[in-house]
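Quick one, T. Sequence first:
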Amino acid sequence: MNPVDHPDNFLAPAVWGNPHPYFARLRSTQPVSWNSWWNGWVLTRYDDVDFILKRSEKVSAATVAPAMARATPEQLERRATTFRMLGSFLPLNDPPDHTRLRRLVNKAFTPATVARLQPGIERRAKELLDAVEGRDQFEVISDFSHPLTLSVISEMLGIPDEDRTEVGTWGAQIVPLVLEGRDNSGRREVAERVLQEMEQYFRKLLQVRRRGPRNDLVSALAQAEDAGGLLTEDEIVSTCILLIFAGQETTTGLIANAVLALDEHPDQRERLVQQPELMPGAVEELLRYCGTAFAVTRMAKEPFRLREQEIAAGDKILLVLAAANRDPERFPDPDRLDISRNATGHLAFAGGVHYCLGGPLARVEARIGLNQLLARYPHLSPAPQRLTWSDVIIAREPASLVVDLSGAGRGVA
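Structure tokens:
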């Protein structure tokens, strides 16, 4: 990576604290621009981002093989687990492998399946809010959104209760391997070690489920492997790792981002307090306005031209979902949160063949979590604090968010 003070470094704290003006300038003046810090193309207009998301014949999501081709023999040996596991990740594969993997996992995330999870999600959200009852403050992520989402995905996979805290911590620690961010060799080394531990854990759990299947996703994946080799063991293990990571990341960050957005728009928060039935539409608008997924990366398979720019085969492409979701050509007055807006068509879950598998689950978790949060604490607001943001390109959320339960907050900087 180039120095922090590079003019194109959009992860620099001065930019990343509020990146929307930076990307709005690009959207209006250079919607397809070369970023010399990131060493790739940056796309910021809705029509362009939506177009590329749906053109899997032009772009590839499989970025592991090119990384392996650039690696030295020593790196290939040292990072063998990383390359093997990430190489089987569903979002980092193209059809036909992507199609095969997604078809098998998709049944766990259908609207009907997710609907059956609702009572458990509601029960867990209530338990977590009961646990902070009587406090003046609590931390939204560690006390509420993270344990809520971890319990749901752990239940789906069939992770024993006694293992869930450690597995959830592992999921957070592998972020530097999965999402592009600031170069931090110390964190990457920890992440690679943790990935090895996760691989060993899920291989053992898979063996246990083969001997005694249960009504969980690990057992279902094991049965798919047995039924004619539809999945390899590496693919099952990497899918479990992915789901632990992704099953927490999206909604954990969305709930924190939503608390901040609603504090900035107190009239919208009051509407939700008074009319909780508006929450489903509000979640769509919050996904558009402050969804956790900030961008996705692709690589050009072939040369093509876009807005007078010549994109070469092998070029990296950053599709800035957050900028597309604030494109005034698609969403009028886009920098205003309006829970009555028709936000249909937002790109918070990307699009095309790689549309987020967990979208239905994330919507339900966010709806239940935010409704219970506002019902219990209608005057919830951030306590005085200086926010620090995730230092990865693909997802943007606060590292921590302390809220004041008295309504005397509004102290973020």
